[in-house]
Write a structure and sequence with these properties.
Pfam families: AIM24 (PF01987). The protein has 267 residues and is an alpha+beta fold. It is 19% helix and 50% strand. About 6% of the residues have low confidence.
């Protein structure tokens, strides 16, 4: 049986192999509406992708509901904590970060296929460091990496800047996979050495290292901000990395323009 996909990216160490699969063409079924959508997706070069994990007597932490199927000697346990206290802690994390309250951990040896999606995936290797990710981006990681909630230090900046009060923090050493809204090649990464990066909009996805986040006026005075045409800017200061997705606002704007307007019911 020939494979309908190709491996577009992979990483591997002594404990785990992570592959990103991309399906070249979807044959469809007998539903004409599905066939029409698949045709336009293929014409627009929109591909179905899937994450495949090979465990080598190791463990993986993933978002709840991410599993599609698996093969091998693999056991599953919950990382949401035990009892009411653990459940409430997980529920709070779910509400605050747009991610699942209970994160399952897969242990053993075998192959795991996570749910396919038309989204894009980014593989990141942490080396005894922390990464702050925007809400809802975390997908899975080696269990040597800890996943938790990061509270914003500046509450007013978090609210005004549109990032919310809490984001996801991954820390430790190992591989992580994130589900990102744009292709990896459209991301822009800034290496910072006691520098500043300012962004006009909510398209900063990650930051790594000793970096402070605030929201500031584009100029020192309100009148200057109005005259310059720029208002509040997301501001990152320090040493480390900031990763942004400059094309994301364009896609969001196109989606809002192309979305059908709600129809009102006649009385």
């Amino acid at each position: 049986m020939s494979e309908a996909y190709k491996v577009i990216n992979f990483v591997e160490n002594q404990n785990i192999k992570i592959e990103i699969l991309e399906y070249q063409n979807l044959g469809g079924n007998d539903n004409f509406s599905v066939a029409e959508r698949l045709y336009f997706a293929q014409q627009s070069n929109i591909k179905l992708r899937q994450v495949r994990i090979t465990l080598k007597n190791s463990s993986l932490t993933a978002e709840s509901g991410a599993l599609q199927f698996m093969k091998g000697n693999i056991t599953l346990r919950s990382l949401g904590g035990t009892g009411a206290k653990g459940f409430l802690k997980g529920l709070a994390s779910n509400v605050l970060t747009n991610e699942s309250a209970i994160k399952p951990q897969y242990q053993g040896s075998g192959v795991i296929y996570l749910e396919p999606s038309f989204k894009h995936y980014l593989i990141v290797e942490l080396n005894n460091e922390e990464m702050i990710a925007d809400k809802g981006l975390f997908y899975c990681c080696e269990s040597t990496v800890s996943v938790s909630v990061q509270a914003m230090k500046n509450i007013s900046s978090a609210i005004v800047g549109g990032e919310g009060l809490f984001q996801t923090k991954v820390s430790g050493s190992g591989y992580c996979v994130f589900e990102i809204p744009v292709p990896e090649e459209e991301l822009v990464e800034f290496e910072m050495q006691n520098e500043m990066v300012q962004v006009d909009g909510n398209f900063t996805l990650f930051r790594v290292g000793n970096i402070d986040f605030t929201v500031e006026k584009s100029t020192k005075s309100i009148f200057g901000s109005v005259a310059s045409g720029e208002g509040l800017l997301q501001t990152f200061r320090g040493s480390g990395k900031v990763i942004i997705a400059p094309t994301l606002p364009v896609y969001e704007k196109l989606a809002s323009v192309l979305s059908p307007a709600p129809t009102s019911k006649k009385s």
